[in-house]
Design a protein that fits this description.
Structural class: alpha+beta
Mean pLDDT: 89
Number of strands: 11
Helix content: 25-40%
Largest sheet: 4 strands, antiparallel
Strand order of the largest sheet: 1-8-3-6
Distance between the termini: 39 Å
Length: 227
């Protein structure tokens, strides 16, 4: 996706004319950054003051527990926001890290400038605040959906709940997930070897078919769950 397309698809700018974007970004203290795959954009513990817009690549919201176990809370694609919930909530420090899953570019905006009308009384401020509120609400629903997925008792239950929700959202049985195998295990909060074993079992049973990150749902799984 081109940078211009990322702006066009960004929900923060919905209803704002393209010719107004240049002045808007200057008013919001925008700064552009680039990170290679594995690079950290916003580290855990850093001040939660900025709202990010992904311009290219892909990033993930990652939480690491006391024992070093990694959980992928969310995957962010070009045009989407990140860290907005933390900044808007007034969180002092980032409770998780924003990490590049691919080489990426992003724009960081000062959240205080978004929420506070500037001295020039820019006409776009009320619209951008409304857009931000809607985006935060949608992101909270996404996090609620993940909590529902990870609440499953078994690896099979977690995986099938996730795949069924993805298929329902896409409106088709063929889907591509935004994770490699380790990333999917981290998102589901399960062991990678256990996930691979369960996927192989589901494939043998004719429930799913898959190749790398591409999945096809063939039928509903049996009610009896395995670990």
């Amino acid at each position: 996706m081109a940078v211009s397309d990322a702006f066009a698809h960004c929900p923060l700018f919905a209803g704002i004319a393209p010719e107004d974007l240049s002045g808007l970004l200057g008013c919001l203290g925008a700064r552009r950054i680039a990170r290679p795959k594995g690079g950290v954009i916003l580290p855990e513990g850093s001040p939660a003051r900025e709202v990010g817009i992904l311009l290219s690549g892909r990033v993930q919201l990652i939480r690491t527990d006391y024992y070093g176990n990694r959980s992928i809370m969310m995957s962010i694609s070009p045009g989407e926001l990140f860290a907005e919930s933390f900044a808007c909530a007034g969180t002092v420090h980032m409770p998780a890290s924003i990490v590049a899953a691919e080489d990426c570019e992003a724009l960081l905006l000062d959240c205080r400038r978004i929420l506070t009308t500037c001295s020039h009384a820019c006409a776009f401020h009320s619209r951008i605040i409304y857009n931000l509120l809607q985006t935060v609400a949608a992101k909270n629903l996404s996090l609620h959906r993940r909590a529902m997925i990870t609440a499953g008792r078994t690896t099979r239950e977690k995986l099938m709940t996730y795949l069924l929700l993805q298929a329902r959202e896409a409106g088709r049985a063929d889907i591509t997930v935004p994770f490699d195998r380790q990333g999917l295990a981290d998102y589901l909060e399960v062991d990678r070897s256990g996930l691979s074993a369960e996927m192989s079992k589901l494939k043998r049973e004719g429930v799913i078919d898959y190749y790398k990150s591409d999945f096809r749902l063939l039928r509903m799984p049996d009610s009896d769950e395995s670990n």
